[in-house]
């Protein structure tokens, strides 16, 4: 389906065209008609499938069809991270550029004054993180009594980050008569319970949340732990990489790897929770603009990251949860573009790969990088004890047998 098939406001239709959108993604094709008919929605779809436009277009269409003189917000979008709140605000601004509608992003890590001024002067759309929004509500900087549409975006990530009590506190202070749209990449029981509690007879949309896009070429490179960084640098030298997003398991690992890449004359930036808002924005904008070829990030920092043109995603560390593998590699191949997902695997991480392959229902291709020396001896500090080697061999054999039995 094309966006032109919907009877959208002319200004919205022109904005969508100017932003380069023509054909809808599956979540957009199913969610937009329901949103336009003012239905409550539970949308479960992988990251990178266009959920932002799926809820913004029907919400903005309602505001343009039913103008109001109130200066109070009529659309509230709750997001787990400041980056997502900023992205939704930017998207809303692009869509409403030729209208009188105004939006603001409300998030922590930035000064209160400018946000307070915007809220008190009057806005139609608020994209907010829960904690900072609660601060403004308690200080009476914002009156949410006119909210007609509530969006809970990336709901599973808000659950992971412990925001559910805050969300409940906020929702209990909103008008009961409203449209509520909830979007999530997965649907754990706690999120299903939240939908049941705060939505009225919602329509449920579920789209292959446990399968990455087919356009992603997945590969595993087995490598000793002490050679991971060397192999990554060799890949960047051999492969046609426009922009690469690399995931590490910890903030410390992200810092070290970004520094090692920079020392190898690779334009790299880092993104994790210890950075200030100004530093985070600088890293993101530098990555988007091409100033940095590589962005090294942790899971929480990069969840929901919306950067077009990422050609490669690398799991420098294998994620502990198989679902996180799906979310991570979904950062590439956006809007059905091609993309590569590379996972560097040590012997200790093989058990995690079996779990990922079980979720995918198939094995991931094993590859080796031509010309790379995998036989560099392990430094003495990195050598495991004899007992650790025996435990590793036993565990690997057991997992391999389990995988064969599942097939």
Can you give a write-up of this model?
Helix content is 43%, strand content 15%. By secondary structure, it is α/β, with parallel strands linked by helices. Strands 3-4-2-5-6-1-7 form a seven-stranded parallel beta sheet, sandwiched between helices. Strand 3, helix 5 and strand 4 form a beta-alpha-beta unit. The longest helix is centred in the C-terminal third of the chain and has 21 residues.
What structural class do you assign from the helix and strand content?
A: alpha/beta
Name the helix and strand elements from N-terminus to C-terminus, one letter apiece.
HHEHEHEHEHEHHEHEEHEHEHEHEHEHEH
Tell me roughly what share of residues is in helical segments: 40-55%
Rg from alpha-carbon coordinates: 23 Å
CATH class of the largest domain: Alpha Beta
Report mean pLDDT, rounded to a whole number.
87
**Largest β sheet strand count, sense and barrel closure:** 7 strands, parallel
Beta-strand fraction estimate: 15-25%
The CATH superfamily title of the largest domain: P-loop containing nucleotide triphosphate hydrolases
Which spans have pLDDT < 50 for at least 5 consecutive residues? 402-407
**What is the terminal-to-terminal distance?**
38 Å
Number of helices: 16
Secondary structure elements and their pairing?
Elements lengths: L9 H9 L7 H11 L4 E4 L6 H15 L9 E4 L3 H14 L7 E4 L5 H10 L3 E4 L1 H9 L10 E4 L2 H6 L3 H8 L7 E6 L4 H10 L4 E4 L9 E7 L5 H11 L5 E4 L3 H13 L4 E4 L5 H13 L4 E4 L1 H4 L9 E4 L6 H8 L9 E7 L4 H11 L4 E3 L18 H21 L1
Parallel strand pairs: 1-6, 1-7, 2-4, 2-5, 3-4, 5-6, 8-13, 8-14, 9-11, 9-12, 10-11, 12-13
Helix pairs in contact: 2-3, 3-4, 6-8, 15-16
């Amino acid at each position: 389906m094309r966006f032109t098939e919907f009877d959208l406001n002319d200004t919205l239709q022109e904005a969508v065209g100017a932003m380069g959108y023509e054909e809808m993604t599956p979540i957009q094709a199913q969610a937009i008609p329901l949103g336009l008919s003012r239905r409550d929605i539970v949308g479960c779809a992988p990251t990178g499938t266009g959920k932002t436009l799926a809820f913004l277009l029907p919400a903005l269409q309602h505001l343009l069809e039913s103008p109001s003189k109130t200066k109070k917000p009529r659309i509230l979008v709750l997001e787990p991270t400041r980056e997502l709140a900023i992205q939704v605000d930017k998207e809303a601004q692009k869509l409403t550029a030729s209208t009188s509608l105004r939006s603001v992003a409300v998030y922590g890590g930035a000064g209160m004054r400018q946000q307070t001024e915007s809220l008190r002067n009057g806005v139609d759309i608020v994209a907010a993180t829960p904690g900072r929004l609660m601060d403004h509500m308690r200080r009476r900087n914002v009156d949410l009594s006119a909210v007609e549409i509530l969006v809970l975006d990336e709901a599973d990530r808000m659950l992971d980050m412990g925001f559910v009590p805050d969300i409940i506190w906020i929702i209990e202070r909103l008008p009961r008569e409203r449209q509520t749209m909830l979007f999530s990449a997965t649907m754990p029981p706690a999120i299903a319970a939240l939908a049941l509690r705060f939505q009225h007879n919602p329509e449920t949309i579920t789209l292959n949340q446990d399968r990455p896009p087919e356009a992603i070429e997945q590969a595993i490179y087995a490598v000793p732990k002490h050679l991971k960084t060397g192999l990554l640098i060799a890949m960047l030298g051999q492969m046609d990489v426009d922009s690469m997003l690399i995931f590490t398991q910890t903030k410390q690992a992200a810092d070290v790897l970004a520094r090692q890449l920079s020392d190898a004359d690779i334009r790299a930036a880092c993104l994790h929770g210890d950075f200030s808002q100004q530093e985070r924005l600088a890293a993101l904008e530098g990555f988007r603009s091409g100033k940095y070829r590589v962005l090294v990030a942790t899971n929480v920092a990069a969840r929901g990251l919306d950067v077009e043109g990422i050609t490669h995603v690398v799991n420098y560390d294998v994620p502990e949860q198989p679902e996180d593998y799906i979310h991570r590699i979904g950062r590439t191949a956006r809007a059905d573009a091609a993309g590569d997902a590379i996972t560097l695997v040590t012997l200790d991480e093989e058990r995690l790969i079996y779990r990922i392959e079980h979720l995918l229902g198939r094995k991931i291709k094993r590859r080796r990088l031509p010309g790379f020396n995998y036989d560099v001896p392990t430094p003495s500090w990195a050598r495991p004890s004899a007992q650790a080697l025996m435990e590793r061999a036993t565990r690997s054999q057991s997992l391999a047998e389990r995988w064969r039995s599942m097939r």
